[in-house]
Amino acid sequence: MKKTIGLFAHVDAGKTTLAEQLLYITQTIRHKGRVDHKDTFLDTHEIEKQRGITVFADQAIFSYNGSTYYLIDTPGHVDFSPEMERAIQVMDYAIIIVSAVEGIEGHTETVWRLLKQHKVPTFFFINKTDRVGADLHGVIAEIQTQLTHDVCDITHSLTENEMSEELIEFIAERNEDLLDRYMEDGYDAELWLESMKNLLKNNQIYPYSHGSALHGNGIESFLEKINLLTITDYNQSGAFSGTVYKIRYDDKGTRITFIKVLSGTLKVRDEVAYDSGENNLNEKVTQIRLYNGDKFQTVTQVSAGDLFAVTGLSSAAIGDCLGAFKNKINYEMISALKSKVTHDPTINVKEVLKFFNILNAEDPALNVTWIEQSQEIHIHVMGTIQLEVLKHVVKERFNLNVSFDEPEILYKETIASEVMGYGHFEPLGHYAEVHLKQVPAPRNSGLSFENVCHTDHLTIGTQNTIQSHLFEREHHGILTGSPLTDLKITLITGRAHNKHTSGGDFREAAFRALRQGLEKAENILLEPFYHFKIKVDLDHMGKVLTDIQQAYGNFDPPITEGRHVFLTGKVPVATFMNYSPEFASLTQGKGSLNLMVGGYYPCHNQKEVIEKLKYNKDADPEYTSSSIFCSKGQGYSVPWDEAEASMHCL
Q1: What would the pLDDT profile of 110-148 be if each residue is shown by its tens digit?
Q2: Which of 182, 337, 401, 438 is least enclosed by beta carbons within 10 angstroms?
């Protein structure tokens, strides 16, 4: 049986140390490394050794009691959350490590929410129970109140043939049929164990164990319980299908595509079909690699359940589906900040861009953007630690010294009221007209499209062409030039010419219609907000609530538990992104602050931002709101506020 298990934790909870113990127990490694000794099996990158944190989600392979395990050690720092989320997609089970001293910390809740969203069955391991200040019962209570009530202790209460009365009662509460059989026939070890496996698989229970990863206390017992309770059922005989979860480039510049097989088998020289976004491709696999840490072995074949890497796929991107699997994977973790890349001016900027495009393939959340007008490279980032790591990576891999401007907020725009937008494009020899209704959509819903155009006005093919053009790129708002979002666009009607309509005419007309509608609408600037969850002593509640209000945030009614209070709500990233040091000082490091970008909402200082960014909507080279009409064999421009009266379909 093949099983993929991921390790998750807040920084310093002991995640990488637990990985070392599991690999040592299963004789995968001969020596247990330590983070502070910079010799762990999975933190092999120089930046990871220097900082003592996991940055890249790397994997190891071990065997235990007849099963093959793929173990993925994920980053624990919030700046590398996108890397962590991409790894989640291929996991059968997860282990969340929680320190018995520090308890539930900020990133732990982010991890939990993502695992719940992606429905990954999860274990907890409460680590560092041998440390001074450890509070096992307190941490369990935190898990029950902050994460889930459905946790059960398996440390000493479960073997293949026996369960404790407490565990039996716990399972019975969640399976009434099993309880009835228990009352009639007594305890059947095989039946109860099977029920527990299914409850875990269906995310109805979350077993936990405890011990010390550093000293190995309770680790082998925990591994036995994991092996006992985890099950997978991959289709080995079906058609090949898989999903891409990681891209890397080796020292020679070879593109390496990491894949999980979901069904069937794949052999060297087989062709793999996938949609690259522009074309449907069929490419031949030239090599198959099984990675174990930073080493790999080549194999001739892999099958369902395997995690592996291939060479030969030129364009497959993270999240792409291969073969028979067609569901494109979307990721939730988004950046709220952007930064400009600064480099030695003697180096050709296009050469620098080439390097950053390689990094973008490995981490699509960077969203590397080339600004043609200013000849600048911009990237999206999660925080300043990520920029420091990127600087090191670029130097190490490309021998290039770069720096980054101070991160700036990523804004978006939308509209507040329904409008009609009209676009006409008719220079000599061309003809297209498009009418678009634009309606505000629910917050954080993005852009959507509806088509109510009659085929008497435009053919189905032309209607589809207009839709394709509208979604071929991000569109700029007119306040700051920021991306347009939360908008429903409806194609109402349009007109073509049998002789003169060609190529990109409807692209021109659709973009002009969209822009003309924005000119008439009430536009709103949106900024990213954090969803926060804060735990502080009651003595500090007043100061923290004042800080939130002064940062233009809002909060839900506080929840008090003993001497602690829990605060939730949302607050602008711009006003709260540097609050962590102040919070740590206020609480003397004893409080808990969890911040996660939770969507876009109206900007608290719209006027100020518009003045600062100085976007000129009439000088955007990619957009115009005017229309082009033709008279006496010559095209002429009509401004947006006069164009509607000249439309041919009205």
Answers
A1: 899 899 989 999 999 999 999 998 999 999 999 998 899
A2: 401
**Same fold yes or no, 337-410 and 525-607:** yes
Class of domain 525-607: alpha beta
Whether this prediction's pTM lies above 0.70 is answered by yes
27-56 confidence digits (pLDDT tens): 988 887 777 667 777 776 777 777 777 888
What is the rounded distance in angstroms from the CA atom of residue 256 to the CA atom of residue 176?
A: 49
Residue 413: in which H helix or E strand, if any?
Answer: strand 412-415
The letter for the amino acid at 581 is P
- Please report, as a single letter, which amino acid is at residue 48: E
d(CA 402, CA 391): 6
Is the confidence at residue 278, as pLDDT, over 70? no
Q: Which helix (H) or strand (E) holds 9?
A: strand 2-9
CATH architecture group of domain 2-229: 3-Layer(aba) Sandwich (3.40)
Does the pLDDT at position 640 exceed 80? yes
| Integer Cα distance of 105 and 15 in angstroms | 14
Contact 303, 265 (CB under 8 A): yes
Query: Residue 218, by phi and psi: left (phi above 0), alpha (psi -120 to 50) or beta?
Result: left
The proportion of the chain whose per-residue pLDDT surpasses 90, expressed as a percent, equals 68
Domain boundaries, the chain: 2-229, 241-323, 337-410, 413-521+616-646, 525-607
Q: Model confidence over 198-227: pLDDT tens digits? A: 999 999 999 999 999 989 999 999 999 999
Tell me how far the alpha carbon of residue 391 is from its chain's centroid. Answer: 22
pLDDT tens sequence across 382-404: 988 899 999 999 999 999 999 99
Torsion of CA 545, 549, 553, 557, to 10 degrees: 40
DSSP 490-548: EEEEEE--TTT--TTHHHHHHHHHHHHHHHHS-EEEEEEEEEEEEEEEHHHHHHHHHHH
Long-range contacts of 468-476 (CB under 8 A, 24+ apart): 469/504, 469/506, 469/507, 469/510, 469/511, 470/510, 470/514, 471/447, 475/447, 475/511, 475/514, 475/623, 476/413, 476/620, 476/622, 476/623
Give CATH superfamily name and number for 241-323.
Translation factors (2.40.30.10)
End-to-end CA distance of the chain: 66
d(CA 186, CA 632): 95
Q: How far apart are CA 263 and CA 237, in angstroms?
A: 7
Superfamily of domain 337-410: Elongation Factor G (Translational Gtpase), domain 3 (3.30.70.870)
CA 429 to chain centre: 46
What is residue 297's three-state secondary structure? strand
* Distance (Å, whole) CA 534 – CA 550: 16
Contact 463/453 with Cβ under 8 angstroms?
A: yes
Residues 219 and 147: their CA atoms lie apart, in Å, by: 23
Indicate the CATH number for domain 413-521+616-646. 3.30.230.10
pLDDT at position 441 is 96
| Residues in contact with 623: Cβ distance below 8 Å, sequence separation at least 6, in sequence order | 475, 476, 511, 515, 617
126: enclosing H helix or E strand: strand 122-127
Nearest to 364 by CA among 408, 328, 406, 330: 330
